[in-house]
Amino acid sequence: MITARVVDAAQRLGGQPAYLYDLPALDAHAAAVRQALGGIELYYAAKANPDPRLLEVLAPHVDGFEVSSGGEFAHVRDLFPRARLALGGPGKTDAELGLDPYRLHVESPAELRRLKRLGVEADVLLRLNLDVEVAGASLTMSGPFGMDPSAVAECLPLFDERVRLRGVHAHLASGLEAAQLLELAAEIARHHPKEVNVGGGMAVSYTDPGHRFDWEAYGKGLAALKRPDQVLRVEPGRALTAYCGYYATRVLDVKRTRGERFAILQGGTHHLRTPVTKGHDQPFTPIPARVGREEPTTLVGQLCTPKDVFARRVPIALEAGDLVVFEMAGAYAWNISHHDFLMHPKPGFVYLD
Ligand SMILES: *Cc1c(COP(=O)(O)O)cnc(C)c1O
After folding, report:
1. Chain mean pLDDT for the chain
2. CA of 68, closest atom in ligand 1
3. Could you give the domains of the chain?
């Protein structure tokens, strides 16, 4: 998984915690996804990682960006003044409703009424809350997200020439494989002829980093669903940027406490919170690779909390001073971490280009 360029960059850092982004790898991946999707529109969900350098690499490959707040809207608009933006999110302020996105994803009848009272113009997709079982999803977006059929029915008479209904939006779950997403997309596309955004949530496996979402199958399947006059759109986040990011650091201490071996790393989950939020072991490569004397080892950070864990009981030989490069740290990583907890220094940022 890890390339010689990334190893080389990590070694040059000398163990100082840093994010490494492999921009050519992101470029190649985004080009392959674009190619596989053919005539299906591709938006990138900026909340997965809004780093401007990554957005610049993605921009030529996408038809637009999905933004989930006024902050993300301003950030992306600033970088790409002419890009198409789709603005969503379950609780929008009047100020956010007054922005002028290409598409506004409306989440409730009350929100639509408020939009009309503001007197602004808008091109709306209604976000659906579908009554479907999503087996195997890592996070399902039911609850407060979107609208059930009765709420959708309440919205329909409210549209006019200023607040226009363009279609529907449905981001249902995260961690779904192509076949599962296609089943859901088929359901939505059948009922809604004009414009359909079937969301993101394409599976990324942290336990099996080599396993990749089948973009070819998804692209073919969506092409088969799409009617000639219909716009079909997807808005992945994680599956686009997860793989291009690495978090590199070093081992400060190795100790044994009551029979369990711990490697204590510089940095911690205040830099890379992904394994805690997802409840997985973050995949990593140790440098050097020490063969022999492997022993179950728990990799932790510098925070004074037992939750500061990157990976548990991984059979490995690590020594103080060794480098550890965590993989799949390009999405929901730095930007979801609690940076200021304990006031340790921030990591560095290195962009391989
Ligand atoms: C977070 C989010 C996405 C992206 O989800 P991924 O799992 O990162 O692909 C897309 N659409 C909406 C509405 C979201 O909230």
Report:
1. 94
2. 15
3. 4-18+243-352 (2.40.37.10), 23-242 (3.20.20.10)
**pLDDT for 251:** 98
Binned at pLDDT 50, 70 and 90, residue 141 comes out as low
Ligand 1 center to residue 38 CA distance, Å?
Answer: 21
Count the neighbouring beta carbons within 10 Å of the beta carbon of residue 42: 20
CA distance 300 to 307: 9
Cis peptide before 275 (omega within 30 of 0): no
pTM reported for the whole predicted model: 0.95
User: Closest Cα to residue 270, out of 184, 182, 201, 346?
Assistant: 346
How far apart are alpha carbons 285 and 260 in whole angstroms? Answer: 21
Instruction: Grade residue 258 by pLDDT with cuts at 50, 70 and 90.
Output: very high
Tokens 């990334």 map to which residue? 6
Pairwise CA distance, residues 349 & 284, whole Å: 18
Q: Is 155 a catalytic residue?
A: no
**Distance, first Cα to last Cα, the chain:** 18
Q: Which amino acid is at 30?
A: A
pLDDT band at 297 (very low <50, low <70, confident <90, very high): very high
